[in-house]
Amino acid sequence: MDYVVSARKWRPKTFEEIVGQEHISKTIKNAIVNNRIAHAYLFAGPRGVGKTTTARILAKALNCQNNINGEPCNKCESCKAFNESQSIDIIEIDGASNRRIEEIRTLRENVKYAPTTGSYKIFIIDEVHMLTTESFNALLKTLEEPPEHAIFIFATTDVHKVPLTIISRCQRFDFRRIELDAIKNQLVKIAESDGVKIDDQALTFIAKKADGALRDAQSLFDQVISFGGKEIDSTVVAKMLNLIDDEVYFNISDAVLNKDFLEAFEISKLIYDNGWNYIDFIMGLTEHFRNILTVILKQDTSFVEATKQIKKMYLEYIDTFKEPDLLRIITYLNKTERELKISQNQKLLMEIALSHLIGMESTTTITELVKNIQEGNFPEYVEKKNEKINSSRQMHKKRSEQTFSEEKTEAKTETHDSVSNIDSNLSKDEIPLIKAIINELGGKEIR
Q1: Which stretches does DSSP call E strand in 58-169?
Q2: Mean pLDDT for the chain overall
Q3: Closest by alpha carbon to 57, among 169, 170, 155?
Q4: Where do the structural domains in the chain lie, given as residue ranges?
Q5: E strand or H helix at 231, and its extent?
Q6: CA distance linking residue 150 with residue 156, whole number of Å
Q7: pLDDT tens column, 56-102
Q8: E strand map for 23-136
Q9: CATH classification of 180-241, choosing from 3.10.450.50, 1.10.8.60, 1.20.58.220, 1.10.340.30?
């Protein structure tokens, strides 16, 4: 079979080729150059970020006969034997299928034997967290005091399942998610090498879908090429991956500003007709409002992972939303996401949630309220509100005089008694201000 998937074809063979893990590559290279080699390493991190690849390069570099500044030469017999999967001094073990204590006992016996050609006998155990508790316990003594020629390299995506007794015997390296731009740059190199034309928006779609995993991005890239051929644009990628159009999210934020309730039902129907996942949609909408919040706070798009065109659209939201309102929206969307997971009718729940979202009123702090009253921005509004209240009361004149009198007394008490206890502590200028605030708040008591 001539075809090789990108994840294998572009697998790094030296530390310099590893993407997004420079802090680990530099540390390991310096350790090799200075001959400060540990007897056990633990590589932890999410999937597809280079843990097993780094373990293989480290093993190859330790046994390389022409090591240059910590890098394997990939030309000596030891490097060639490993690259062709023929090395007997570097042993790779799958922790998931060799998790029983019998396999670990066999490994302990093999540790005793010296390497044949290289300087070290190296054991790479992938997904080490899959080993049983008994297997970990059987490995403890060997891991603490191994022979001088033995080196262990563990890789895991779930370091919390690895016993602390194992972790404490290893040098731990935490791999991080690969940044969006780093993934896009690597995909550009692959595209140029394969003669594929792909635009920036399409690369962004693939990189975001990969969620920090370069291997996932490379697999998606191969799928997109199979679907669209040698010329790829964002429309092809969106169709192939069934991605939600960013414009839909902008339509919702515009609807919130314009109080356009009809948009809630139109977007819900669009999600249903396109077969988009409702939970994925809510997660994307949450990220959308998070992006708006960062743009308003920072006055730029440095915290937004998107194309230049999308970033320009986010800049238009400066001075539109208030920070407290965005926090309320994000909190509400997180709550909606949890409710969607257990809902029997996600479409109906989505329509109700979007309607609530669009209908949210903007918040006003007490500080802003006092400032507006001091500047004379509210008196006219207060008068209109009082006129509305008086008009409402006129509609109920048919009530008995006794009932009306009691209601009037209660209303007066509710409106003004809240300040009666503090009138003695206020100046003559402050009392009208406090009463105006209480009238604005509907006569509710301030505590």
Answers
A1: 90-94, 121-126, 150-156
A2: 83
A3: 155
A4: 6-174, 180-241, 246-359, 366-440
A5: strand 231-232
A6: 20
A7: 999 999 988 888 888 998 888 888 888 888 888 888 888 888 878 88
A8: 40-44, 90-94, 121-126
A9: 1.10.8.60
